[in-house]
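Task 17 of the worksheet. Students: predict the tertiary structure of the chain below and write it out as structure tokens. Keep your answer in the requested format; marks are given for formatting as well as content.
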Amino acid sequence: MAAKNLTKTVVEKATYQAGGPSRQVIWDARLRGFGLRLTPEGGKQYVLLFRANGRQRLMSLGPVQDFKSLDEARAKAEKLLHGLRHEGIDPMAARERLAEAQTMCDLWTVYERDHLATLSGNTKRAVTSAWRVHLEPVVGALKPGQVTKADVIRVHDRATECGGECVANRAVQRLRAMFAWLYDRAEQQFPAGWRNPAVGIKLHRESPRTHILDTGQMRALLAALDGDEHVWTRSYVALLMLTGARKEEIRQLRWDAIDLERGVAHLSQTKNGKPFELPLVPEAVTVLRSIRAVAGNPYVFPQVRATPKQVAPQPMIEPRGAYKAALKRAGLPATTTFHDLRRSYATMAAVRGATAEQIARALNNTSSVAARVYIQLAQDVQRRIAEQNAKALLPGPQA
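Model answer:
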């Protein structure tokens, strides 16, 4: 049948033509591959025609009455086509695998293979950790339709107790995203009228972190890491300070990605999934030249002691213990995180007049929203400096 702009009126008035072809589909002129299929019994369903792995496939999106509107059905088709074109996911193959799943653990296997594999390494590790530690113990054995809000609240409470408020919020958000992805691809796994149980859960109120270190505090932290036993941690922390890079980007930095002569590091695994050329100032190059490479391990910061089951060289484990001990020796707050070093780097750039766009580019952020926060912090720093200078210049009356 010829393509036409599918509208609510067209969908309502369309009827199966007796004597016509056995398969009758009105194709949408707006979205190629999206259509309305009519059956001899008077049924109507939205369908999606696509090609995957050299095969043309016609997939039912569901009866018309299962959608609130035509736009909702078209949006679902667009999402599936996007996954096919940009992530290589055959929506029908994913549905077939999902149809075989019984529990949330079964569905996690499909989710991990068909969705997480398309995300950046950092995001994949974060989602996997949330599943293993907080989600699987509570909902893993349940069928998707059996998970209730009470179960999600239990996830939140449990994660709050063992991981903290931010960790608990992220666990619920990961579960909500997982349910949304699954439902888009396998509604049949869920009972009629199902609603995502992770939507509407009251999360902890989060205040944005504003902690930054000044140059004196950074020097004190590095001094606290002096000594042979802290050589790896000191170099790691120094590079975080000198580059403003994310902790995982430095922890997983490989020697073959570094050009010391040009002073750049090529980052292929970043949070936003986009390769990034990280500038290395002379001081950073000096730090890198001082690091001893370990034979057989490609990482700048290698895991020196391999575990019995380890089959390939790995980067070092995040040195949280040594870092926390150094903070104590330096007299800095124990809550100071590695990310605070990145925030401090950006704030210093803002103090020196860098714009939000320049800071976002330097940090490989996809938007300048975070950079505007750094600029606000920089303004607070500048005010404190001005106030301190004013007090030194015109001290008030002595008590």
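Marker's comment: The chain has three domains: 8-85, 97-189, 215-305+313-391. Residues 369-393 form the longest helix (25 residues).
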